[in-house]
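Fill-in record for NADP-dependent 3-hydroxy acid dehydrogenase YdfG.
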Amino acid sequence: MNTPKVVVITGASEGVGAALVSAYRELGYAVVANARSIAPSTDPMVRTVAGDIACPAVRANAIGEAVSAFGRVDTLVNHAGVFVAKPFTEYTEDDYARVTGVNLRGFFEISQRAIDVMLTHGGGHLVTVTASRDNGLPSALASLTRGGLDAVTRSLAAEYASQDIRVNAVTPAHAPGDGDVVDAIVHLETAELVTGVVVRVDGGR
């Protein structure tokens, strides 16, 4: 019996995240879906891990559930993210901790865990949903965190290309259609020679 590929998706309870769960199931993947609040799935090939990805235990549980339930991690979709719109001088220490805890540390540590597992199975794919804020909202803190993810995408793609781990990102507009973002991620998933790219999904904005 063939073992299905396995994807871990953060921020998977609604919108783009929930649509990604369905899209990956259509591709034949087993799914581990994480969100701060998420109900158990009736699909035996979908496991859910509730909790904030900023919490170290939740990051460990998401990857651990994939390995214990399905034996591997082939793809990690970093979709969880926090956006706080404030004038730059009004950001508080709590704002900084909240945003960086998800957008940077959450990304960093779950990606480390996922790549570590991918290396034992001969490759994989890491794809991150970053954010484009070209709509006039004050977004310095989002730019600091999410902009850095574009750069680390290229860096990790170069670092792991020889080990068959691809690393890509999708940058949506502030309010894109869910399907457009999902389509871009599915395209990257199936484009086996594409790595180190940041795909903008913003209608030319």
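KEY FINDING: The mean pLDDT is 92.
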